[in-house]
């Protein structure tokens, strides 16, 4: 009946094309995703940024099911963010609402986006690996750094503690701006949840939101299925809304 897409890059969800893409994706910026899919498949198509689709999925049928005000974060190769407020996705003026991974104030290290001091320089898998390498001269994957931290390696623990403190700061900033009740965290780095969760909860408790209400911290439940399930939820939502509109085409 319809197709939903969760795609990398900053997208124009209304027009259905990609606005900004990293150089890992050749000719992706400007590509008319929904027009191409609708023409090929003969059904309506709807486009979301992949992290926006992730949060839609976790709210539709995952860890944050039914929540009204949610910050979604993916700690993967990079750090992605998505904002869900008042029961709907907030895309913002330029499709980039919720991009918490690329706001300065988290140190002074250069970020993959060209900025400095962004959360991504502390909390992405690539950054965990790099920060550990700087301290020790050893090359481990983010997962191996997590294992080392659990085995008592102080440098590995410090690297994860800095990531957890950064994530906590991002949560409290978002809570102060839009009063989210829930955060759902996915991406490969979240596989080290038993290590990471207390390293986020500690700084959050020390620096709680101004509302006086603690933010509920959840690990994503759907794994790699969150993006396709969220994209499908968007398509279903749009079709339902069209049918409900009087005089709308069937
Ligand atoms: Zn950045």
How would you characterize the overall build of this protein?
By secondary structure, the protein is α/β, with parallel strands linked by helices. The chain has two domains: 1-62 and 221-250, ATPase, nucleotide binding domain (Nucleotidyltransferase, domain 5); 67-220, 2-Layer Sandwich (Nucleotidyltransferase, domain 5). It has eight helices and nine strands. A five-stranded mixed sheet has the order 7-6-5-8-9, sandwiched between helices. Strands 1-4 form a two-stranded parallel sheet. The model has no long low-confidence stretch (mean pLDDT 93). Zinc ion binds at residues 102, 111, 113, 115, 118, 120. Zinc ion is lined by residues 102, 111, 113, 115, 118, 120.
Biggest beta-sheet profile:
5 strands, mixed
Task: Return the domain count.
Answer: 2
CATH architecture of the largest domain: 2-Layer Sandwich
The CATH first-level class of the largest domain comes to Alpha Beta
Question: Number of helix segments?
Answer: 8
In one word, what is the shape? Answer: globular
The end-to-end distance, rounded to whole angstroms, is: 11 Å
CATH topology tier name of the largest domain: Nucleotidyltransferase, domain 5
């Amino acid at each position: 009946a319809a197709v939903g897409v969760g795609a990398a890059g900053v997208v124009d969800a209304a027009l259905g094309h990609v606005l900004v893409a990293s150089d890992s994706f050749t000719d992706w910026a400007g590509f008319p995703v929904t027009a191409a899919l609708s023409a090929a498949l003969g059904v309506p198509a709807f486009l979301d940024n992949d992290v926006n689709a992730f949060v839609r999925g976790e709210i539709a049928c995952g860890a944050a099911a039914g929540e009204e005000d949610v910050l979604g974060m993916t700690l993967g190769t990079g750090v992605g963010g998505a904002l869900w407020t008042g029961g709907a996705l907030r895309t913002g003026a330029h499709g980039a609402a919720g991009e918490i991974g690329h706001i300065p104030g988290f140190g002074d290290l250069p970020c993959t986006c060209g900025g400095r001091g962004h959360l991504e320089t502390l909390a992405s898998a690539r950054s965990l690996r790099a920060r550990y390498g700087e301290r020790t001269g050893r090359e481990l994957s983010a997962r191996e750094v997590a294992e080392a931290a659990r085995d008592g390696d102080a440098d590995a623990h410090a690297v994860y503690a800095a990531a957890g403190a950064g994530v906590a700061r991002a949560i409290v900033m978002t809570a102060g701006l839009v009063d989210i009740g829930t955060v759902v965290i996915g991406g490969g780095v979240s596989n080290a949840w038993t290590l990471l969760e207390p390293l986020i909860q500690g700084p959050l408790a020390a620096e709680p939101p101004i509302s006086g209400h603690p933010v509920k911290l959840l690990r994503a439940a759907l794994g790699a299925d969150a993006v396709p399930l969220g994209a499908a939820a968007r398509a279903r939502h749009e079709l339902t809304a069209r049918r409900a509109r009087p005089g709308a085409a069937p």
